[in-house]
Amino acid sequence: MIRALGPGSVSSFLKVILDVFYYVLWGVGFLVAAIILGLLLISFDPQILPAAILTHAYIMGQAPGLAAAIRLSGAELSLIGVVIIVQRLRRIFGAMTAGDPFHPDNVRRLRVTALVLALIEINHYLFAAIDRFVLHIHTPGGLSLDFTPWFAVLVIVVLAEVFREGARLRRDAELTI
To answer: Cα Rg for the chain, rounded, in angstroms?
Structure first.
């Protein structure tokens, strides 16, 4: 039978996967930040790059420069949010691997996860509006409302309350003689 909690369980396997993913995300984040910095430098002096690169290289549908840097910044902000979410999930699964799923800190971790997920979605709307009204880029479905992320936020908020109740019940059980 497969165990859900403790060492050698499914939660410990998922923790390892989240650990690897966390460090890969950090690497991608630093790479994207370096690209954004390069794009900003190019926007000040486009002559840095040969003309062939300027006419054939596109980042997120934009030639190297300020518009590409702005669009990539939106993606970088979402990536930072994903790093925060994965970091919180690592800690939750760490507590589960230790056999303590109702650790009181898991409630806060889930609430932060829900908040960051909501901020990622707001970031999506913000940069879709910047694309449309500032950069005059019309992407299909850019400003459309997607209920899936908002449903996920609500589910995570409810799970946080379930974990809060579990932590309370565990605390009450520890006080019982």
So the answer is: 21
